Batch of 2 targets.
Target 1
Amino acid sequence: MSARPLALPALVAAAAILAGCTSTAASPTDPSAPASAAAPAAPTPGGSIVYGHQQEPACVFGGWIEQSYLSYNVLDSLVALDENHEVVPWLATEWSVSDDQLEWTFTLKEGVRFTDGSELTAEVVAFNFDYWMDGGNGTAAAWLGGYYESAEAVDERTVRISLSRPYPRLADNLTQGYFGIQSKEALESRSDEENCEKPIGSGAFKVQEWNRGENIVLVRNEDYTSWPANAKHEGPAYLEKIDWKFIGDPTTRVATLRSGETDAIYDVPAIDWAPLGSEGYELHRYVTPGRPQQLAFDTVDGPFTDERVRKAFAFASDRKQIVETIGHGVIPYEGNGGVSQATPGYSQKAADWYSYDPEQANQLLDEAGWTGRDAEGYRTKDGERLTVVLPYGAGSIINADGAAILQGIQEQVKAVGFHVELIPVPPSATFAGAYSTPEERDIYPGYWTSVTAGILYINWRQHLPESPNYANSAFLADPELEQIILDANSTVDLEEQNELYRKAQEYIAEHALSIGVYARLSTLAVREGLVDVWQENAQGGPVFHDAYLAG
Amino acid sequence: MTALKDSPAGSPVESAVQATPARARRSRRVRPSVALALAVVGLLGLAVAAPQLLATHDPTAIDFSAALQAPSAEHWFGTDESGRDLYSRVVHGTRESLTIGLGAAALSLALALVLGALAALGGRFVSGTVNRLVEILFAFPTLLFALLLVAILGPSATTQIVAVGVGSAPGYARIVRGQILAARRSGYVEAAIALGHPRSVILRQHVIPNAVRPLVAVFTLCVGQSIVWASGLSFLGLGVAPPSSEWGALLDAGRAYVTHAPWLVVIPGLVIVTLALAATAIGKDIQARLESGDS
């Protein structure tokens, strides 16, 4: 714990640190990205750009990564994550934790004002914590739940967060966009709709207008003073305006970039990656830490209640080959442990738990009593076909590449006798909660981004009748696994903590509770002449504060 | 095809039904376009009945080493992102595409018959109510109505049949009503009335058969149109579940690769167009023949 940034006294001198960070800031994403090196010395402020994004969320601020991408440019957080996975100052200049690990104290930057003119104070920050916990942000609440007790303003510039149990990774988690700080005055005096569409932060941009179904217009905050320590420059954003356009179709998005209609796009289809690179577009790729795209088995209803059937499914497909082919070398394969390779405390052993072994899959299914075969070659037991239902959020949770990967798995597991029923669920139904009960599905694919392996607690906290956990998509109620993760969450020594997280991943792999498929990526393609767009390090969203138009 | 739906009361069909005897006589010989259309339908019929006779590969077999290959001697229509043979997928998708097309057309015409007969033969209240209902439904664009149904019922082949069938019924209901009204006012019905035949007999023996006969042609047209609508729904991702190779679903899947592997979109698109054209050609021919029989 002593190595954590909270112990760095030098952080008090904010200006010096900012200068230092600016000079050392390397490209946080793709090292092959040529832009920064070739950039002219003095960027000229001004101009506007069009950014083509894939999905349109319901609000600018909220608990979904798509909201985080937006709010990161509008709201400032207490802390940010740099490219070395270190927590660095943002609205907080320094922070410390008590010896018993239960009280976190954050010191705030001075002179920060929200875009409604109100001031950033400790009271405002404390109010934001309570606001998230009271339903203002479900994901923030999921992270803090079980640990957070209260937040109070010690003085004008000092806020104290009290926890019920130690959580040494608290600051790391606060770097995610779900923890953006909003104006208390705005939250209290304006309607929910206003705060949804145009949240008031102290960020580099503010929301000018939202044309639903089309775009969100972000304009520069001329009075910006609170850039994060890992920003590439000090002062307000260079760009005056960002037209954040929603272009759902990937082919169209790429076409708009090529035609010059957009200056940058999000989520580059794997097949367009190499061609765009060779055409001179700057490519950024961020492998999202947290839960990668995994298949969680329904452990309370249907054939996967039998561990042997789950293992058989894990052995039955060459997921690595499928992902590498469909992903054209851009989308990495992810193994079986519950967190992605980009996550601190990742276990390679868990990832490698299952190889492609149809023979073993067949043997396990025989042992599990699925010995019959019907006319179409599917396995049966007591006359019932081994059908497993796999609904997926088409176009929301799973993109076109992902859908092709799922079909590859569907076809391969057919050989050992699984009949996989793929159900593409449209976004409206996905967000309305379709297929959310154990009776409706047998496998559920999904990701959950996170900067730490603490995501395991959110995903594997027991699903119990008295305290359901729908983020536990296996519907598992396993006190042993939960205890390992709880112990990890509160372990102060990070090496020891990682060891426990690895143990949890190996437990998940060993019991085949969920299996990995592919890494969730955040990718960007940026045209030549638009310089210093980068991906923030907590979730891979685009950062436009430092971006400028060259020439 | 779409002109039929977009024009009020399906006027092209009505006008075709009332074609002059001279035109009808000209169409007694099998024109080359109709012969070609029959050949296409025959081929598709074979694809429905015994796809394994036409297909060259297993339609769902994945071969990653052959992903996204252009059309060749080995893969006539090329391959998709998983190396599946597109030609075999098109062949195997015929059954589902035609089932949806025929099912939707049958449902649409059945509904149209009921609504049209009620509108033409019901009392003032029934007729007025049905007419207003049809007009309201008619005001909805078919696709919008179908989307609404898919949103309620969830995507599947059955939903597509219902969505397209119900969505396109109002237009045909207007045609049925027009046919029945025309038959009621015809000379032979007037003669039957003058001869003192009972009302039920006149309806059964004269009005209904004469009103319904032209619908055989309309049905053929409707099949082609339904396939186009259903493909549209699949293209929007609201159709059948993967790995089905229903033609609209093939179009949708190929969309992501349109700049790299255009055959994935162009070929299924051409197949849909070919079937729609064949159905239209046959439908118009039947129409003309029926008309000549009537006159």
Note: Chain A has two domains: 50-286+522-549, 290-519.
Target 2
Amino acid sequence: MLQVNNIEVVYNKVILVLKGISLEIQDGGVVALLGANGAGKTTTLRAISGILDVENGELEGGQIDFMGRPIHNLDPDEIVKLGISMVPEGRRVFRDLTVLENLLIGAHTRMDKEGIRADLEMIIRYFPVLKERKGQLAIYLSGGEQQMLVIGRALISRPKLMMLDEPSLGLAPLLVTEIFNILRSINGEQRTGILLVEQNARIALNFARYGYIMENGKIMLDGPSEELVKNEDVKEFYLGVKDDLAKKSYAEVKHYKRRKRWLS
Amino acid sequence: MESGLVFFLQLLGSGIAVGCLYALIALGFVLIFKATEIVNFAQGEVIMLSAFICYFLVTTFHIPFFPALVITCIAAALLGVLTERLVLRPMLGEPVFAVVMVTIGLSIFFRSMAGILFGHNNLVFPNPFPSETLKLGGIVLSQTQIWIMVSTFVLITAFFIFFKYSRIGLAMRGTADDQRVALLMGVSVKRVFSLIWALSFATAAVAGIFLANVMVINLGLAFVAISAFPAIVLGGLESIPGAIIGGLAIGIIENLAGGYLDQMIGGGIKDVTPFVVLFLLLMFRPYGLFGKKEIERV
């Protein structure tokens, strides 16, 4: 469905942030993109949704194809129309709009009133809390409700691919589990592909079928989630699991070397 | 009725009429600022240009007043789209200061063009309304004043419905709220900006045409926009209801002050009061009655 081919992104014409990223998502696939702060995960999402220029960024090389057609030169509204929607980081609801208006603005690219109404029902089925809060200003929702609202807002454009930027950020573990369960059923029932950006590798690899791990603007490792979870380096650097505490002092030296291999 | 009360209501009535004009001018500023965070200093020139255009449509081309008003609004809207496309869009992402300077440049350009095209003489708009006044329970209002109130009310209601219930209006509010997220929702922010400039200039045109009915038309008409600044600040720069309430309030306050204080101190109080209000406001509530309490560093 989506192929990202060796893209390079430069900010402010000098800072090379993505140094040749390639990734692929199958129809209805669930893919996680992991990495530390500043690895370039969000930039990758921005490149796909075509909003780099707002942030002074520029796609210098490479190609992005969606459903077999290149999209890297399209305006963001055309990309949404083709079926990619994004849930930006940090629960960016429209604060001065009501919950219902937030959802309706997500349907901006659609003209079929009946279809929109039906999909509003669908979103309320997934997120029943939004129904009670329909007329309230979005700013007065709790963090979890806001996250549900922005996912609903992205869903109402009927995307083929939904990109989520750190949906677990700042939410209680129980809520995170709930949201990921809902995402899983959306993926199963609506066949919406999901590209998930996360810092929380444990949740992400548990949720996604395939994972990419980024460091410093490059993809260092990729593979099916089950394999990544078993990988020693991933375990140590991303999942925080260490086998043997006794070896600690010796491991420290090795750790440095191995970590360096990741970061160079 | 008691004569004191009649006097008060009379001042109130004509104050509301003036306030409506302030509200329209303020609305023009607020529309652009709310969506794009640009204070358009060329707004006054648009008011003045529209007054000229409407004047020539009515006198030279003998078009009746209301069609002329509509044509002028359309012309102003086109000018707005053109201005946004040619002047402001290339400035996207530039520092606020640079953009403000561009709008000041634009205002000088518009004023000079008006001078070249329409001349520097004082023109008097042929009054489109019958000159007999209306009496509403002791208060005397001219028909022009009544029309000003009616048009303002119609325009504001139309705006309200548009922003509340239409798809584009909703997209505009979203853009004003968070431009980047609006982009991600598939809103074409470029088109929203064009439309906002068109709406703002059309509103300025309505204000300009009615101003032309109560004042002489010359290049100085552009400076009327400055006298609407207290109204804008009172309402808060990013609040549409604020612009309306601020406009009405300033109109009423200046008329009341003029009516009561002029007799005691002598003339000119009317022109000063809005700015006294502005002073006090900037001291105690700089973001206005309905504005956002946000500090922006420029």
Note: Chain B has a mean pLDDT of 89.
